[in-house]
Amino acid sequence: MRRSVQFQSPEQFEAAAGGRGGAGRQQEALRTEFGFELPRGYVDESGTVHRTGVMRLATARDELVPLRDDRVRENSAYLSVVLISRVVTRIGTVEDIHPGVIEDLFASDLAFLQDFYRRVNAEGHTRAAVTCPSCDEEFAVNLAGGRLGES
Description:
The protein is of the alpha+beta class. It has helices spanning 10-16, 60-64, 70-74, 79-87, 99-103, 107-123, and strands spanning 33-43, 49-56, 88-91, 127-131, 138-142.
């Protein structure tokens, strides 16, 4: 079951609400799908590297069903593999995302998706606060888009 809804950024929302702060919040649509770009990329059987993808919001079922999986019962660390495979809907042109695909990701890409899952489902956004190592300036970056060093 795929649902698609339109999302307004906080800036668009404020502009549409006429800068009234909390007034009109009921009109804001819920964002259910989030694009991402893997740090390294998924390499398929033919050697093609797929970097971009889509993750949807998790449902309660997404978090409960993996707990009945025998692989998870034998090894609790496998939970994240099954969970991520349920919520990632596409990586590049690959739309049949299953635990085998997630198992074949590089460790850095799995770690990225685990953090992305947490940000999307627990925090409701894909931004991260960072500090520049050279000038100690603090700013936010969007983990969903662009490659490192791009803005």
